[in-house]
Amino acid sequence: MPKHSESKRSFLRLTTLLLGACAALLGLWGAIRFALFGGASARPREFPMSVLESLQAGIPMHVPEAGAWLIKGGPADITALDDRCTHLGCRYRWEAEQQLFACPCHGSEFASDGSVLKGPATRPLIALTLNREEQGKIRLLEGKG
Predict the structure, then answer these.
(1) Phi, psi of 87, rounded to the nearest 5 degrees
(2) Alpha-carbon span 120 to 123, nearest angstrom
(3) Dihedral of CA 17/18/19/22: which sign?
(4) What is the DSSP string of 98-140?
(5) 3 state DSSP class of 101
(6) What span, in angstroms and rounded, lies between the C-alpha atoms of 78 and 126?
(7) Whole-angstrom distance, CA of residue 51 vs CA of residue 45
């Protein structure tokens, strides 16, 4: 009988060790993903210049291929905002009735200029600069210019 209980103990020790290693790797993977959130994006942030012609004053337009929202203030005043919430990177949406951007993941709210109205987000939305390129394209660059 002692041999049977020792093999059982060895099996339980090995199983516990393997489960612990899997949990540690999973935790490490999550920590690395969290640390790298907001890193350099490989997607090109550009769109045809014709998109600007369809903008209506005060009505934000989502340009998913560029990962941005565009808001026309005046004839030459266009605000561009990254389409990811600064809290944890969810895509937020425009709530026309309330005239604000709302994140569906954790409830953050932002004004049309990107400033935080309600947390948990503590940083405003990332402002982008419109840069006119050749071939009738607009490229978005991070930061206000």
Answers:
(1) -75, -65
(2) 9
(3) positive
(4) TTEEE-TTT--EE-TTS-EEESS--SPPPEEEEEE-STTEEEE
(5) strand
(6) 14
(7) 13
- How does strand 68-74 pair with strand 61-63? antiparallel
Tabulate helix, strand, coil % of the chain (nearest 5): 30, 30, 40
β-strand pairing of 127-132 with 68-74: unpaired
| Cα–Cα distance, 9 to 15 (Å, whole number) | 10
* Alpha-carbon gap, residue 105 to 43, rounded angstroms: 23
Lowest average pLDDT, out of 2-6, 12-16, 26-30, 102-106, goes to: 2-6
Q: Please give the Cα distance from 132 to 139 (Å, whole number).
A: 6
Tell me the whole-structure pTM to 2 decimals: 0.68
Continuous segment of H or E residues that includes residue 73: strand 68-74
Model confidence pLDDT, tens digit, residues 110-126: 999 999 999 899 999 99
Nearest of 92, 100, 95 to residue 117 by alpha carbon: 100
Q: Please say whether the beta carbons of 86 and 127 come within 8 A.
A: no
CA 131 to chain centre: 22
Closest CA to 143 of 87, 86, 82, 92: 82
